[in-house]
Specification:
It catalyses: a ribonucleoside 5'-phosphate + H2O = a ribonucleoside + phosphate. Belongs to the SurE nucleotidase family. Pfam families: SurE. Its cofactor is a divalent metal cation. A 9-stranded mixed β-sheet has the order 3-4-2-1-5-6-7-11-8, sandwiched between helices. Strands 9-10 form a two-stranded antiparallel sheet. It has a single domain, classed as 3-Layer(aba) Sandwich (Stationary-phase Survival Protein Sure Homolog, Chain: A), CATH 3.40.1210. α1 packs parallel to α5 and α2 packs parallel to α4. The N and C termini lie far apart (52 Å). The radius of gyration is 19 Å and the shape is globular. It is of the alpha/beta class and 259 residues long. The protein is built from 7 helices and 11 strands.
Length: 259
C-alpha cells in the first residue's frame, strides 16, 4: 500500500510525526509512506493553491519532501511530481495541532489537503487533535494511540465513492488523554453560534498599525450530535464531507421564487 501524507503545520510539526506512524501502521512493512508537507506553517489557508507563483520543492530525506506552498499544493506536488510513477492509494492530512470541528473546517489547510486529494480522485482522510487542559502534557496522545485502529477501520469499512465530488473524511480527536476517550461517533459538521473569527489591532515599534486575525473560543459546543459537541463530550468525531458547496435544500425553493 502506498500512502501520501501532508499537513498544514509544516514539515517539522510534531503532529506530522504522529501521522507518519499512523500511516506506517496501515501501510504495513511492505508498504510505502511518502511525505510532502509545507516548508512553513500554512494554518488557516483552507483549500488555497499557489496558482500565480511557482513553489520550491526540497528533498529532506527518503520519501520526504517539503514544498513552499499550501497543503493542497503539496498534494498536487505529490501526485504529479514526487509520485509521478504511480498514485497513492490514500492521502492522509494532519495530525493538526488543534481541532477542525464545526466552522473551523472551512478555514482548515488540513482539510484543504484532503479535499484536493478527493477532487483528484484519491481517497483522503484529515485528522485533527482538539487541545485542552487535560491533554496539555501529551497533546497528541489520543491521536497517536487511537488513530491507527480508527483509520484502518475507516479505510476498510468506510464509504468510498467515485462521484465527481467524492467523499473524504474529517476525524477530530477530543481534548483528552487516550485512556479517557469514550469511543467514536459519526457526526455532522456543526456550527458554533457564539464563536467567530475577528481581528485585533496592534502597533509596531515604529508606530505602524497592524491587524492580527484572531480565532474564537474553541471550547464551545455546537448543535447536539455534531462534531464539536461530541468532541467536547469525550468522543472522536468522524465526519464524511464533500467539496460540493451547493445549498441543495434551497434549489427548488429558489427556482420557484424566481420563476
Amino acid at each position: 500500500m502506498r500512502i501520501l501524507i501532508t499537513n498544514d503545520d509544516g514539515i517539522h510539526a510534531p503532529g506530522l510525526d504522529v501521522l507518519h506512524d499512523i500511516a506506517a501502521d496501515l501501510a504495513g512493512p511492505e508498504g510505502e509512506v511518502w511525505t510532502v508537507a509545507p516548508a512553513f506553517e500554512q494554518s488557516g489557508v483552507g483549500h488555497c493553491v499557489s496558482y500565480t507563483r511557482p513553489m520550491l520543492l526540497a528533498k529532506h530525506g527518503p520519501r520526504r519532501f517539503a514544498a513552499e506552498g499550501s497543503p493542497a499544493d503539496c498534494v498536487l506536488a505529490g501526485l504529479y511530481d514526487v509520485l509521478h510513477d504511480g498514485r497513492p492509494d490514500l492521502v492522509l492530512s494532519g495530525v493538526n495541532a488543534g481541532n477542525n470541528s464545526a466552522e473551523n473546517a472551512l478555514y482548515s489547510g488540513t482539510l484543504g489537503g484532503a479535499m484536493e486529494a478527493a477532487l483528484q480522485g484519491v481517497p483522503a482522510i484529515a485528522l485533527s487533535q482538539f487541545f485542552g487542559p487535560e491533554s496539555r502534557e501529551n497533546p497528541f496522545d489520543a491521536a497517536r494511540t487511537l488513530g491507527p485502529d480508527l483509520v484502518r477501520r475507516l479505510w476498510e469499512k468506510g464509504v468510498w465513492d467515485n462521484g465527481p465530488y467524492r467523499v473524504f473524511y474529517s476525524i477530530n480527536f477530543p481534548p483528552l488523554p487516550a485512556a479517557r476517550v469514550r469511543g467514536f461517533k459519526v457526526a455532522a459538521q456543526g456550527y458554533r453560534t457564539d464563536s467567530f473569527m475577528s481581528v485585533e489591532p496592534s502597533l509596531s515599534p515604529s508606530g505602524r498599525r497592524f491587524l492580527w486575525v484572531k480565532g474564537g473560543e474553541q471550547h464551545v459546543a455546537a448543535q447536539p450530535g455534531t462534531d464539536a459537541t461530541v468532541n467536547l463530550d469525550g468522543w472522536i468525531s468522524v465526519t464524511p464531507m464533500r467539496a460540493d458547496l451547493t445549498a441543495h435544500d434551497v434549489l427548488a425553493e429558489l427556482e420557484a421564487s424566481l420563476a
